[in-house]
Design brief:
Elements lengths: L9 E3 L9 H5 L5 E4 L2 E4 L9 H5 L5 E3 L12 E6 L1 H4 L8 H10 L4 E4 L4 H14 L5 E2 L4 H10 L13 H14 L8 E7 L2 H8 L11 E4 H13 L16 H4 L15 E5 L1 H12 L8 E5 L15 H16 L2 H7 L6 H6 L18 H15 L15 H9 L9 H9 L5 H12 L19
Parallel strand pairs: 5-6, 5-8, 7-11, 8-9, 10-11
Antiparallel strand pairs: 1-4, 2-3
Length: 460
């Protein structure tokens, strides 16, 4: 089992959160609880998928990023950006214009992540042939990797041990600059991310000791700066239209079916974290068989639906496909012009990650014997809990509450139905029951308040 910590990019602003349970109910791994009227995250369960951030009605959940000014600590500043960044902008703006603005903002170099996919589209089938596990599961989406680690550990060995395009491109570009006699300490590589999970993966890599990336900038932050510059007419000094240096296939790699289309045998592409959960459960239970490769992405429409994207995910997909269609005209040339493929021997030699290690989120006790006792206690507790999964106890389900109780993080009396039962049988006073509710939902939560969300004086 891996022992190093999971870095998490999602943070809850306790000053803004008012404990509405929206985040708690959508979390796929039941990582969120409510105490004292505020949501908080069980970090060992969180996979940084961002579902909670999407669901929060008051923007209390935030995604960390590095200070943009950190780029200026380096003489050579590389903007490593994904293709979905270009899909955020109206089609009248070329990728080369967006790159030009990135350079105007202070970067000295800009490189599109998907250049690494031209290498992977030939390496994935080779990996499938040598792997003893079926199906091979893509290593592209870090939220899915963490989901497998914490909820489907029996499938960890199925995860492909090939680096995703972002790491391949980062290590290539670092070598590209050091080959020009640029000192490594003078090189800063910054990834512009569409999601929180990639931040977590860069800060706390799985299968590797360190990332080749020095910092992360959120896409919603950089989009506003780029778009403002484009509307002011900046970036037009670049040669237009774009001159492709990667294939149309690589450009579409981060979209749904972008990777599965190049796998050998029967391949499946799945997007959306809850769809992924359903599929992985069936796969683990051996209800699904005879699949050779699975591409799984946590976001709807894959990276086009990343939580840090500004634009509509369907428009983003359309724009990338239009850009790929333009690249089709020069496809023969792009295979030769991709600079990453010109260093293919180096890339191949450094293309592997270590095995993905399970990290069970239901770790009831370090001692196996005590863990089994607690598991049996959990099952006994479920005999008394109503199974309604109302969330009024501050946990998303009755099962989650039972697990919290055996780990001394909650009490049976947190359940409002058990409170009613105890009051009926004289085991709890009304005052105690009321205090228990306040412990979970905060003081004065049951007092009349016409200014809360949805009430008649909400906007006054």
């Amino acid at each position: 089992m891996e022992t190093h910590f999971f870095h998490h990019a999602l943070k809850i602003n306790q000053d803004v959160c008012y404990g509405c349970t929206h985040c708690m109910t959508v979390c796929p791994t039941e990582a969120i609880r409510v105490k004292d009227g505020k949501a908080f995250i069980y970090e060992h369960k969180c996979i940084d998928c961002g579902m909670c951030m999407k669901a929060c009605p008051v923007n209390a959940i935030q995604v960390e990023q590095d200070d943009f000014n950190n780029i200026f600590k380096y003489k050579h500043r590389v903007a490593l950006y994904p293709s979905v960044l270009t899909g955020q902008f109206p089609s009248k703006y070329y990728a080369s214009q967006i790159t030009a603005v990135l350079l105007d903002l202070g970067f000295t170099h800009a490189f599109e992540v998907e250049h690494g996919a031209d290498f992977l589209k030939k390496e994935v089938p080779k990996y499938q042939l040598e792997s003893e596990y079926r199906p091979v599961i893509s290593s592209f989406c870090p939220a899915i990797i963490r989901l497998i680690q914490v909820k489907f550990p029996s499938l960890a060995n199925n995860v492909m041990q090939l680096k995703p395009p972002v790491e391949l491109s980062a290590q290539f570009y670092r070598k590209h600059l050091t080959d020009k006699n640029i000192a490594d300490e003078d090189i800063g590589i910054f990834y512009i991310t569409p999601c929180a999970a990639k931040i977590a993966a860069i800060k706390s890599p799985v299968g590797e000791p360190d990332s080749h990336i020095d910092g992360v900038i959120n896409m919603d932050f950089i989009f506003n700066r780029i778009f403002r510059a484009l509307k002011q007419g900046k970036g037009t000094h670049r040669e237009l239209p774009d001159k492709p240096t990667m294939s149309p296939d690589a450009l579409k790699w981060s979209l749904t079916n972008g990777e599965a289309a190049h796998a050998k045998g029967r391949s499946i592409a799945i997007d959306g974290v809850h769809n992924a959960m359903d599929f992985l459960e069936q796969l683990e239970d051996e209800e699904i068989s005879n699949i050779d490769f699975i591409e799984i992405r946590a976001c709807d429409e894959s990276c086009a639906g990343g939580i840090l994207n500004t634009n509509n995910r369907f428009l983003t997909v359309e724009r990338l496909k239009l850009r790929a269609a333009h690249y089709e005209q020069d496809q023969a040339k792009t295979a030769e012009s991709n600079p990453l493929l010109q260093q293919k021997a180096y890339v191949k030699e450094n293309s592997r990650i270590g095995a993905v290690k399970p990290r069970s989120m239901l770790k009831l006790d370090e001692d196996m014997a005590r863990a089994l006792i607690k598991m049996e206690k959990t099952r006994r507790l479920m005999c008394f809990l109503p199974g309604i999964d109302c969330g009024a106890c501050g946990a998303p389900t009755c099962q989650a509450l039972a697990e919290d109780i055996v780990q001394h993080k909650a009490a049976l009396s947190d359940c409002i139905f058990m409170q009613a039962h105890m009051q009926t049988h004289g085991k709890m006073s009304r005052k105690t029951a009321y205090k228990k509710v306040e412990t979970i939902w905060g003081e004065n939560r049951l007092q009349k308040n016409c200014k809360k969300k949805g009430a008649k004086d909400e906007n006054i």
